[in-house]
Automatic annotation (TrEMBL):
GO molecular function list: heme binding; iron ion binding; monooxygenase activity; oxidoreductase activity, acting on paired donors, with incorporation or reduction of molecular oxygen
Keyword Thylakoid among UniProt keywords: no
Record flagged with keyword Oxidoreductase: yes
PANTHER family found in the cross-reference section: CYTOCHROME P450 YJIB-RELATED (PTHR46696:SF1), P450, PUTATIVE (EUROFUNG)-RELATED (PTHR46696)
A Pfam family: p450
Protein name as annotated: Cytochrome P450
Key words, A-Z: Heme, Iron, Metal-binding, Monooxygenase, Oxidoreductase
Family to which this protein belongs: Belongs to the cytochrome P450 family.
């Protein structure tokens, strides 16, 4: 924060106790990981694991790593995650991932991002506000008719599918059946996923890639006023077929679950902190800062993984190409060196430099769109149903790759 002295440099080191704690955090997710993050950061803020991975848990170090051009995206972690799938399935997954912004670096990443970035600028996204508001009101109408209905399946998940579906040009009639497929896709990013879950994620990716490939072929023949048609069009920067499908898959598949989890995690925080909920209900002008606090307090993305691209010294240690660097974003967002009272939920928090959308050239392309949808959801929800309350115990999704809820039953009371 402004006026706060910079964090003291740390030197990466091995620590058997901290390494065991790190693997426990990743492979045995708990309801509340934040006390464990504090313990990891206090014990070994720059941890070198036995396989050479550098694990960072301070805000300053994570922020610096995200912006460091000697580090970038690689496929080593994903290949390890997919070690139990068949060779044919592995080939199919990697072919798409390696041509996607999620695993590319400049200049390919720059070219891919430039082609789609105009659809996600703040000005373009703000123009979607009225349409998003109409969708939210319709979803709230249906929720209000069914006391005890699940906010996740009835609002948080369908909303981003419809919003991004509108941008891409996904037919309305197809969207509902794609929601559970997108949910399954997220299993690929969960460190604790076993072989059965990983294979379900692979099947989901194959299904979505086939579906999107068919739509793209249609748009090449009959273009419409949508992003899929732009991706499929010929130009000096035209994408090849694999790049086109991979980009559409990233935008539609990976762009939905984080927003749904932002909404679910945010509502859970409002339930847990009634004073913040009261302030936000009485002062809707706090919505932008409240959404950023929801992102910081319980981030939908708890970690990011980079690869060393060229020999580099970081955190007092020499890194070699191919070595992994894991940034524990959830820990960074609760770092007391960066945030006052980091475990408190404050909808009026100032200078909220959270890392939930990452940073640097890999900063989340859909950040503006996610924020807008959350602002509309909580603005309309609290304006229309200020006494909304839990109808039953929420069920949290067991994972850190996509931290959120499987269900949050609610009663909407005016």
């Amino acid at each position: 924060m402004a006026g706060r002295p910079p964090a003291e440099p740390v030197v990466a080191r091995a620590d058997a106790e901290a390494e065991q704690l790190f693997y426990t955090i990743m492979m045995q997710p708990v309801e509340d990981p934040y006390p464990l993050y504090h313990q990891l950061r206090d014990t070994a803020p720059a941890l070198l694991t036995g396989d050479g991975t550098l694990v960072l848990s301070r805000h300053s170090d994570c922020n610096a790593a995200l912006r460091n051009r000697s580090l970038g995206k690689g496929d080593e972690w994903l290949k390890l995650q997919l070690k139990d799938v068949s060779k044919d399935d592995l080939r199919g997954v990697m072919e798409l991932m390696q041509q996607s912004m999620i695993l590319t670096n400049p200049p390919q990443h720059t070219r891919l991002r430039r082609i789609v970035s105009s659809a996600f600028t703040g000005r373009h996204v703000e123009a979607l506000r009225d349409g998003v508001t109409r969708r939210v009101d319709g979803l709230l109408d249906r929720l209000a008719e069914r006391p005890g209905a699940d906010l996740m399946t009835e609002l948080a998940m369908p909303l981003p599918v419809s919003t991004i579906g509108d941008l891409l040009g996904i037919p309305e009639a197809d969207r509902a059946e794609l929601v559970p497929v997108i949910h399954e896709l997220g299993l690929l990013m969960e460190p604790a996923s076993g072989p059965a879950e990983i294979n379900r994620g692979v099947a989901a990716q194959t299904h979505l890639a086939t579906y999107l490939g068919g739509l793209i072929a249609e748009r090449q023949q009959r273009p419409q006023d949508d992003l899929l048609s732009r991706l499929a069009s010929t130009s000096d920067e035209a994408l090849d077929r694999t790049e086109t499908i991979a980009t559409a898959l990233l935008l539609f598949g990976a762009g939905n679950t984080p927003t749904a989890n932002l909404i679910g995690n945010g509502l859970d925080a409002l339930f847990r902190f009634p004073e913040s909920r009261r302030r936000l209900t009485e002062d809707p002008g706090l919505l932008p800062s409240a959404v950023d606090e929801m992102l910081r307090f319980d981030s939908p993305s708890q970690f990011d993984v980079f690869t060393v691209l060229q020999p580099h010294s970081f955190a007092g240690t020499d890194l070699k190409p191919g070595q992994g660097v894991m940034m524990m974003l959830g820990a960074a967002n609760h770092d007391p060196e960066r945030f006052d009272d980091p475990d408190a939920f404050d909808v009026a928090r100032k200078e909220n430099g959270h890392l939930s959308f990452a940073a640097g050239i890999h900063h989340c392309l859909g950040a503006h769109l996610a924020r807008l949808q959350a602002e509309v959801v909580f603005g309309r929800l609290l304006a229309r149903f200020p006494k909304v309350e839990p109808a039953a115990e929420a069920v949290r999704h067991p994972g850190l790759g996509n931290r959120g809820f499987d269900s949050i039953p609610v009663n909407l009371a005016a």
